[in-house]
Each structure stands twice: as C-alpha cells, then as structure tokens.
Amino acid sequence: MNKPLRGVIPPVATPFKDEELDLKALQANLRTWNQTGLSGYLILGSNGESCYLSEAEKEAVLAAAAEAMAPDKLFMAGTGCESTRQTIGLTRRASELGADCALVLTPAYYKGQMTNEALEAHYQKVAEASPMPILLYNVPQFTGVNLAPALVARLSAHDNIAGIKDSSGNIGQLTEIIRQSRPGFAVFVGSAPVFYPALCVGAVGGILAVANVVPELCVELQRLYQAGGHPGALAMQRAINPLAALVTTGLGVGGLKLAMDLRGFQGGQVRSPLCLPQAARPQLAQELDKLRPLL
Amino acid sequence: MNKPLRGVIPPVATPFKDEELDLKALQANLRTWNQTGLSGYLILGSNGESCYLSEAEKEAVLAAAAEAMAPDKLFMAGTGCESTRQTIGLTRRASELGADCALVLTPAYYKGQMTNEALEAHYQKVAEASPMPILLYNVPQFTGVNLAPALVARLSAHDNIAGIKDSSGNIGQLTEIIRQSRPGFAVFVGSAPVFYPALCVGAVGGILAVANVVPELCVELQRLYQAGGHPGALAMQRAINPLAALVTTGLGVGGLKLAMDLRGFQGGQVRSPLCLPQAARPQLAQELDKLRPLL
Amino acid sequence: MNKPLRGVIPPVATPFKDEELDLKALQANLRTWNQTGLSGYLILGSNGESCYLSEAEKEAVLAAAAEAMAPDKLFMAGTGCESTRQTIGLTRRASELGADCALVLTPAYYKGQMTNEALEAHYQKVAEASPMPILLYNVPQFTGVNLAPALVARLSAHDNIAGIKDSSGNIGQLTEIIRQSRPGFAVFVGSAPVFYPALCVGAVGGILAVANVVPELCVELQRLYQAGGHPGALAMQRAINPLAALVTTGLGVGGLKLAMDLRGFQGGQVRSPLCLPQAARPQLAQELDKLRPLL
Amino acid sequence: MNKPLRGVIPPVATPFKDEELDLKALQANLRTWNQTGLSGYLILGSNGESCYLSEAEKEAVLAAAAEAMAPDKLFMAGTGCESTRQTIGLTRRASELGADCALVLTPAYYKGQMTNEALEAHYQKVAEASPMPILLYNVPQFTGVNLAPALVARLSAHDNIAGIKDSSGNIGQLTEIIRQSRPGFAVFVGSAPVFYPALCVGAVGGILAVANVVPELCVELQRLYQAGGHPGALAMQRAINPLAALVTTGLGVGGLKLAMDLRGFQGGQVRSPLCLPQAARPQLAQELDKLRPLL
After folding, report:
1. Is C165 labeled as catalytic in the residue annotation?
2. Are A and C touching by the rule of 3+ CB pairs within 8 Å?
3. What is the pTM of this model?
4. Which range marks the domain in which residue D43 is found?
C-alpha cells in the first residue's frame, strides 16, 4: 500500500431506503467527497451500520464503494467480526474488492475471556492471514473491551499491523499508545471532540463520524494544526464540538444521517432497531447554521 | 406449540474440530441428553458460540440438532441479531428447520440508542413476524443493555411473546419481572448460581450452561424444589455452585467444553479467539469429582 | 453479647429539624418500635445520614438511641470510617455508649488501593481493637468496593467478626458468602427487594431501610418464612417491593423520611445536599395505602 | 484574593509517623518547595489523605502549612465534606487559618440522589457562605459522581466560584467545560498524564500528584507550553508519564510517598488501610533515574 496513513477519514454512513441498501446514495456521497481534502474512507465501520448487514450485503457495499471512490483516496474496510475465522474471511474478501487496508474491531461478546493473550493471538492470526495491512480498532464504549497501550505496543511490532483507531476518547491512553508503540505506527483518533488534542500528542489523523457532515472543517482543523496554527485549530475544535456530540453520543447514527441530509448529502434511512430522530432536525439545523460562516 | 415452557434447558455447546463444525459430536450429546429429564435444548445460544458462526453454519447447526433431538423435547433456537431484519430472517428459518420457539437477544451494539422505545419496537416487530413464539433474552454482562421489568411487562402482553430468559443474576429484578408481567409469562433464569432462589420467587425453570455438564443435578434441584424440599434444593444449589462458576464467569465456554469432555460428553474445541483452558483441567476434574456422589 | 444476631433490624433514620439533630424525634421512633417484633436497631447506618454528622453529633445520636431503646433489642452501631484509626476510635466510643456490636463499612475512597490484602488487614485490626463483636458491611453501589465471598470467609474465622450485612442485592454472592464462611457466621441481607430469597439461601435476617416504615410487615415476612410458609412469604415480598424500591434507589433517604411521616413516625428533615422529594408524597401515600390491608 | 489562579500546584501529601501526623515533615517539604516555580499548594486534597483525618487534625494540618508556606504561594484548602453544613464549617475555618481559596469535592455517598439540582444547590450554598473563593472538584473515579460541563457552566456564573479542578482525565469534557463556562473561569486539570493536552485546550494549570515528586518538571512543562514550545512540552509529558502513572493509579498515595522519599523529600508513612508498597521501591527509583537528566 503506497497511500499514506494520515488525515481525516469519515466512517462512511450506509444509506438505506425502506430497509434496503441504497448504494446509489452511497456512491453519490463518495463522488462528492472525492472533491474534498479527505484522505480516504472507512467503509463498514460502526457508523456504517456494519453489524446490521448480511455477509452478501457487506460485499455489495464494499464493491459499490470501490467503484465510486477516487483512486488516490485510501480505502479502509471494517472487517472485524467476533471470530478470527470470520474476520480473516472478510478481510480477504475486502482486499479482493479493492480495499487498501482493514480496520479490525476487537472481538467482544465473551468479554471475560478477551484477555490480553486472547486478543494478541487473534490479531496476530488476522495479520498473518491478511493480504493487506490491518489496523486495530478500539471502541470500549461499544464493546466493553479496551486495548491497553502495552498490548497495542506489542502488536505494533508486527509488519502487517500498521496502526490503530482509538475511539475511547481517552487522550492519556492515546499518548501512551503513541509513546509505547514503534515509530511510524499510525495512530488515528476516533472521537471528534478530542481531534485537536489528539493531534497535539501525536495522532496522524482522525476517523470521525462528523466528517460525514462537515468534512472540510475537519480537514481544515488538521491543516491548521500542521501549519502551527494552534489557536485556529482549537477554535475549530470548539466550533465543531456541539455538532460532533449530537451526531455521536447524542443522537447516534440516525442523527448523523439527518445531519448529512441537512448538509446536502444523502444520509438516507437507518435500519431498525435504530430510528431517525426527526424531532431533533431543528436542533441539528441550528448547529449546522452556526458552522455556515466557516464553510 | 404444545410443549410446556418450563424446566431445565442447556444452552447447548457447539463442538468444533480444527475450527470446523463437528455436528456429529453435537448430535451425540443430544442423543445422550434425550435420556435425561431435561425439558429441551437451546440451540445457538451464547454458550453455543452463535456469534462465531456464519449464516450457513447457523442453519447447519439447527438442522443437525433437529435431527438428533427427541420429539418431546422443547427446541428453542437463539435467533437474536443486531438488526430487526436479520433477526426476523433467522427466526423464520429456525422455524422452518423445526424450532418450537425462539430466544431473541437484545440488540446492543449501539447501546446509547437502545432506549426502551427502540427495544420495544424491535421486539414487537419480531413477534409480529415470527411464525412461532419468541422469548426475550436479557444478558447485560455480555451486552451492556438491560431489559427493565416495566418494559418486559409491557412486552409480555403480546400474544407471541411467551417468556424471557434473564441472565442478569439479579434476583430482585427477576422478582419484579414476574410480579409485573402477565400471569403465565414464562420466566427462565439464565444463571445457575441463583437457580434455587429464582425458583423460589417464581421462575419456571433455568437455561443453564452447567446443564451441559451435569444435567441430572440441575433437573433434580428443580424436582426437589417442586416437591417442597427446600433444604435439599438449597444443598444441591450449594453443591453445584463451584462448578457452575468455573464453566461460566471463571473459564467461559472453553471451560464448559473441557468439563463436558471430563463428564463423558463431547465438548470439542472452541473457535478462536476463545481458547480451551487446558491448565484448568485438574481443577475442573476435582470439582466434578466432588459431585460424583450425587450423580 | 448475649443477644442473638438475627431478625429484622432497621437502619434507623436520623431526624433533623432546620439542619439540627432532632433527638427527641429519634427517641420517639425507637420507643414506638420497641413494641414491634424488630430484633434491634442499626444506629448510624447509611440511612442514618451518618456521613453528614460531626464526630460529636455521632456520639449524641448513639447516646440518645441508647436511652430510648428497649434493653432486649440489639444495639448495632455503624462505626466504619475511611481510616482504621478513626474506625477503631468510633467503635470503642460506641461500645462505651452501650452498643452491642458494630457494623463496619468498607473503606472506599482510595478504591484502587482497597485490595483484598488491605481490606483484610483493616478488618483484622478493627476486630482486634474492638471491645465488642463487629460485622462487615458491604454496599458496593455506594462505595465502589465489593467484599468477595472468599475474603469474607477468611475474615469469618476471626472470633470477634460475627457477621456481615451485604447490601449488594446479589443473591448469588450471598449464597457463596454463606457457603464459604464458618458455620454460625451471621449473614444479614441489606436490600429489601431480595429479603425473601436471601432467607431461602440462609440469611439470618435483614437490615432494611423499609423497616423504618413498615417494620411489622418485614417481621411477618421472616416469621412466615421460618414457619415454612413460602407462598405467604413470597406474597409479602411482592407486596412490599414497590414501597421498598421507592424509599431506597427511587427516592433515597428523603423518600424514606416522607414515608415514615406518612406512616405516623417522625421522619423529620434531611440534611443538605439531600432533599425531601415532596412531589413524591402522593405516590408514597398510594403505595402505603396498598399495604394497609396487611398492617 | 490577589494571587492568580494558574500554574502547577501539588496536592500536598500529609506525612505520618507511626500513624500520627508528622507536621515537621510537612513543613520541611513546603519550605523546600517554596524555592521552586510551583504556584501554590493544595492542602487536604485527596493525596493528602484528608478523609483519614479527624476534624482537629485537619485544622492542625492547615495551621502548620500556613506557617511554612511562602507568602506569595497560593494556599488552596480541600474543604469538601459530604454535607453542605460540614463543608461550610471547614471552609470558614480554613479561611481563618489563612487559606486563599477552597477546593470543594462533590458530595458522593448518596450517588443516586446527587442530581444536577442537588449538586447545584450544594455549591451555591457553599459559595454564598464562604468568605473566600471556592473551586469545584470533580474526581469521578473516586466518587462515582461527575460534574457535567453544563452544570459547571451554570455554577461558573457565581461570583464566588472561581474555577474547577477536573481529575476525570477526560480531555473532551475539559474542552467543553472551558468552552461553556464564563471567560476567566479557572480550569485546572487534576491528572498529570494529560497535563500538556489540557493546556492545549485552555487549562490554566495542573493540580498534580506527581508535582510532589518532580515539581520542577511539571513547572517546566507549562513554561515550555506557554513559550510556544509544543514539541518540548510534549516530550516532557512523555517523560513524566511513567512516574505519574505509578504514583497515582499504579501505587496510590503510598507509592507517591515512597517516590517523595527517593527524591529527597519527606513522604513519611501512610495511614492504614493504605500501605507503603515497599516492593515497588526499585521500580520507582528506576523511573526517577530516567528523569535525572531533566532535573
């Protein structure tokens, strides 16, 4: 893989229409985003309702995304499943369908058994079997499992483990992951409200739900940071925080999709048991309006 | 469905051999258990490593189980998936393959969005679409989502929602579920260390991992209780507690399978990332030995 | 101490008037309760707002309680403080003021350091220094610290450690505490919604907030249980559950005091930052009314 | 109060000798630290084992500290107790004994009742009654109670509420507290592993346990940050992280005191149930050695 692991990457929302995949809407979004400074796309991430898709649907989404994506954008595929076997299978399939790298969620159902040893063995096996680089994916608020910095550091020694997305929101942990891992290990933050401080402590970029809605502001935040413009980057962080909170912990994927619609993208519907929080539409519109002067 | 919802039901372990399904071992276990006082079988439950199986493998397991199971035993299938759509699909397929009823795990990945309203709508849709009765399945230690008694009570009013398996281990909650739900709603406890107190407060039976290992002792505990033999039932509870703890929170599914082997059943292997805790074999053997006089 | 450790004991509420102790109200309550089947009183427990009292006030409350209490009732004093030294000091003072035994809350502020070793050493030192028997007090929902059954069992071997109040509400844990501890170790449950199942698994009694409001119903529940009247005991459990939930997790100590007032006892005011939830008065009255036929 | 609220402040450890206060050791430490760039001292904080002190001992510690402290250093006193009344009493006494401001821990024992309303009323009452400015103190890992940004923002409007120490370690929350509170509200971070990112998002300083051990490095980190030396500040952050982790979550107050001894300060003993983790002395020495080149 020659594309650099850095910058802003949206965990791409998967549009539905009457409970069916709406791949045209997905492709339309990607084609619009191809014109932005986004570094790439995460297909089949948490915000892509990946866990609501059948095996065949996952392949259809990957194939459709591959078709619409500009060739210079990084194609990251979410391939983590509960078993090592399923994870390897989906990782290989994603590679065949054009993905550049895989983001591998921690297995989590049997929390009590997901010891450091079990997690380490799982990731080693996936890394060995994968035809493309993998990144670890840590999101304890969804999984109840946390990848500790020392474990991440050990895994970072593997040639085919290229980085991590840490969505814990814990900047102390992120600092330690970066400090303890091998130089060059690509650490992405997965929580928009701490994007700027994550960059300060050495993150290479962000995989951020809100980048589905205001990609240019997320990209601009990182540009400002890299140009040494700390005050501007902090101001941008503070500006996007209310919207970022709404489309994640506040309203979830349904809120994210409504905000995409309001911004002119095609969020589409969610799958049940998720709902579109229609009552929150005015609040989302209001927060977006506050950001217009920056757009 | 004419079979009563009561008694002891093992969440049947799914044996593997070199990462592949070992359906012959599964069938051998069922044929042995057909001779016991078990009321039925839960196929594709948490202890069946259901989340490690592909869609095709789930069907193969259900079909193999149907073949081996005595016709008077209750055939309960675990069909809960993250989306309503997947859940309905698997529930219908399980019915076609011979299941008598379905046990439907709470969706849980998007915890923050799994409000009472979302969960209620999900279960109503599944109950409407299911050709057979469904039972709710609450296991907060795995899912991070809890079904509150008031919500269970509302759902118990639906004709096609026949009961619940509550694995929280919380007897206060179980008491309230029973008190608030409609008469006749079948409440199973899913945690062996509180089987006897659960019966005391009105549970109709237990869906218990340790019933894969010592089915006759679990059955005897409930028989003693129903005969008014409280001291004997409590003594049995205390006797099985150490083994029950080991094969669940202590060692997980791997420990359960080793214990099954030690007892003469065919536990088989687990799928990665789970492991067989071979080092614990002597401890499991010791606890089983203590139970021999009761067998 | 010749008084038996068993039966129903209220963690006595401490009445206030304009933020000052109202010891006359306290004594009036005790004198009324002296006529009931309560086994004794816990003075300075969690429901006594002990943590809101100065050192001098704690002594005043103990002295006033001693004066009003019938001589045959067990006088249990809550003496647990964060340091071993403070705990020993208050335990000795309580003994001088007439207490029969002490209930010693787990230290909890430095949670990460409250290892099994630290807790064991703490309790050993307090037991050595105490002129009267002590009981352990486990209430993880307040403290964030849990006394595991194996630790309790080790401590039960000490001559001067007579029992435990476990308020975790976890009946599986209670069963294990009883199974693993020395015979004769007095295990009280501290959570009214599981009083009946706790008795079933071997608890000797309950230290129950709701016994400040409906002492006779709690006493009757245990009497029914001991007479072998399981159905009656369960019915009583179900009857008191709504009120018991309101005066603890629902509305806290403020709700407890309002319910005492409604019942004709003198609950008095709470200290800030607690509040009397006056808006809940009708709901409390309604639940009490439902219990009138049993009183 | 004319002293600025900013910079590095150690939560001063309270030395003990054979379980008794060792006030000479306390004063010796303060006199040494008077020569450093520390902005002031927090007396009776969590790391001062405040919860282990009697009322009289708290006054003795405050008086001894007042005597030894250089007049230009900020004298902050930890005065939070469970009740509003106790908190006001100790705050007034601390002011009489020379404190410049008070740090007021959230009440937490009755967690379920510590609603936003109850906490707001508590802090308003304390602020009204206090003769000196107060700061809020949020440390959810000890208390189980969290002060949400919106509540902090409302409280920041009070003239006598000057700031907050947030020890949650949550930089997203810190960013929001700063964004939502009134300009000039002094936000200190209370977790050393996130000192640098906290400064980046607008914190005015840090109240840091590790500043008892390496005050000059903490002061230098903030100086570098303020001089625009981001790379140097980050390097310092990474350098102090291992020691900072050991003397807090790793080994607690006992570890902090051992490290103070190793550095040539007088840590002294802890009070039971805390212990000095003597076995960790080599590890602490090793981490300190790594920092020598920076000292």
Report:
1. yes
2. no
3. 0.97
4. 7-294
